[in-house]
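Q: Got a minute? One more chain.
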Amino acid sequence: MVYGSYGYTGKLIVKECRARNLSVMLAGRNEEQLRRQSTESGYPFTVVDSHDGEGLKKLLEPAAIVIHCGGPFRYTAKTMTEACLATNTHYTDITGEYLVFESLPSLDKQAKELNITIMPGTGFDVVPSDCLALHLKNRLPSATHLQLAFTMSKGGLSRGTSKSMTEGMGDGGLIRKDGKLTKIALGEKVLEIDFGSFKTKTLCIPWGDISTAWRSTGIPNIEVYTGATDKMISNAKRSNYLNWLLRMRWVKNFMLKQIDKKPAGPSDEKLESGRSFLWGKVSDDKGQDCVARLETLSGYSLTAKTAVLIAKKIMEGNFKPGFQTPAMAYGPDLIMEIPTTKRVDA
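A: Always. Here it is, folded:
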């Protein structure tokens, strides 16, 4: 089951499913778009709203697994996972929202009893960074601090990603400190990162790894950074004075309407030629440290590959029951199964 199959990333996932000859049901709430996609792909479809719990249960009854693409996931993951538990259906999604990663571990016991997996974050968020974090932890088992950073060449954001980010505006920055999520001001932490072939400034953001990497590695202090221009850093610092405004519903609704006027996502050329670059560093209380770098596909191309790769593994019986992060379930080399991925230890 691919829910939200007609969104920008959902379409890429469906295309990857077709390339792997998987049996798929398309689903979502927009009948017109589903009908068009069904005609193009040859897959059947069902119309169900993401908040219709009973409808989702009927939808998932025949399914082995759902790849949930209908965000923002802070509003949709709960109902979908409840339907999965009711129908013994494996749950995966492509979120990067830390709120989802924080809430779903509470389903671990139920999922284990049902012998199903609950695995959010099977796309660019957070497969490559989760794998990099565990790789570094294995190199330095005594690590107490983890810093992760990522940036892109070419690309841009899909409407879905932009909407998820908009919903999180006004909340400020976040890191994990001594095992607890700790608020910081946006723009408070800035690093210049050497990604190997280039260096760039990066800005600390509340990315999903502050939750997932903690569970994958047990490292209690985690910060995540993304490539940023001087203007982006300045805007982030200024936004701290406007958090009260950015949290208002009418402001978010206005911004969401503006997003709907933009292209669905990056062009095909950017999708194919773009690359993702990741950097990670662990250190311990004795002053030891390790650094590693990763280069792989562009974010949305990678999401399609990893989401379907993981779904296929689960359908073949290769899974761990309960709440999992990608690296917890499949180890640090999962990302190396994606063609053209390179990892370098420094």
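A: The longest strand covers residues 145-153.
Q: Perfect, thanks.
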